[in-house]
Design the sequence.
């Protein structure tokens, strides 16, 4: 059985879609209900057994390190007040996982961000989680992907059906129906952000990957692609054409659960409203308020 304990979270993006909110704080720190978006992603990795987390950061991302560290003054103040509930919430993010950091000096794309993890990951399969996609904690997508990787080897991507006009926002997969089994499909081709007319299907990669370490060697040889960036999708296309014994083969897990997109402003608002209604403390009140005030 492969030793899968590491998660890589690319977090070097500039967050330009959220300016000016992200002028002085990283987009990963924007709150989704009552936690920064990035905390959901780390919690998802930990829930899947991956408590060694490498964040690929860049300039102006210091708040991420502070968030996953202890905050002694705050903890002492809460302790002195006997506010154990908030104390527990403040400590939680610091003890959640072993979080490591590496900086991506040049913003040369997602494939390049993954390459920055090479030394930390070494020769083991590992997961990549993109922070713009939140997967509902009740859905066990990553666990399922890890199980597929352990059983079959190769690499695994999460796929979701999207409206055909949205294919140009995602990496899209061609699949071999005959190699499919339930939610697990064999990926035969991948295209980064194709126009609808050129898309091999409307199965889009959502931001979860479990990768064979041979992806690093492939990324080293992958020329800049769409947007003049080194694309992870292009490296996976190469792996899809290689036999499993050589670290190749790409499987897709088709996800039909709850995914929240926090990548742009409108989707972010939708995510906050949907998750706000689920909140254990005030979700019911918020849902009742929405019913009364929205659409009237
Ligand atoms: C990245 C990937 C793309 C994938 C998407 C999922 O694009 O390049 O293949 O479908 O994440 O969110 P980005 O959204 O970073 O432009």
Sequence:
């Amino acid at each position: 059985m492969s030793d899968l304990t590491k998660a890589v979270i690319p977090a070097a993006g500039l967050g330009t879609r959220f300016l000016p909110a992200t002028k002085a704080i990283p987009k990963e720190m924007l709150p989704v209900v009552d936690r920064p978006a990035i905390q959901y992603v780390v919690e998802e990795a930990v829930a899947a057994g991956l408590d060694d987390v490498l964040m690929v950061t860049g300039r102006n991302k210091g708040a991420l390190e502070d968030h996953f560290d202890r905050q002694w003054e705050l903890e002492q103040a809460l302790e002195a007040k006997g506010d154990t509930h908030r104390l527990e919430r403040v400590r939680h993010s610091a003890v959640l996982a072993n979080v490591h950091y590496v900086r991506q000096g040049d913003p040369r794309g997602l494939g390049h961000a993954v390459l920055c993890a090479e030394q930390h990951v070494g020769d083991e399969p590992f997961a990549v989680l993109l922070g713009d996609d939140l997967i509902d904690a009740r859905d066990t997508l990553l666990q399922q992907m890890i199980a597929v990787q352990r059983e079959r080897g190769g690499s695994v991507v999460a796929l979701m059906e999207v409206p055909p006009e949205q294919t140009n926002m995602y990496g899209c997969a061609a699949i071999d129906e005959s190699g499919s089994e339930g939610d697990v499909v064999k990926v035969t081709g991948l295209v980064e952000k194709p126009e609808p007319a050129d898309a091999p299907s409307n199965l889009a990669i959502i931001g979860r990957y479990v990768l064979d370490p041979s992806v690093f060697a492939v990324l080293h040889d992958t020329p800049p692609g769409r947007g003049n960036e080194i694309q992870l999708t292009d490296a996976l296309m190469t792996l899809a054409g290689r036999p499993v014994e050589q670290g190749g083969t790409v499987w897709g897990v088709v996800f039909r659960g709850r995914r929240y997109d926090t990548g742009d402003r409108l989707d972010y608002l939708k995510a906050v409203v949907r998750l706000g209604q689920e909140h254990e403390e005030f979700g019911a009140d918020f849902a009742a308020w929405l019913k009364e005030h929205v659409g009237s």
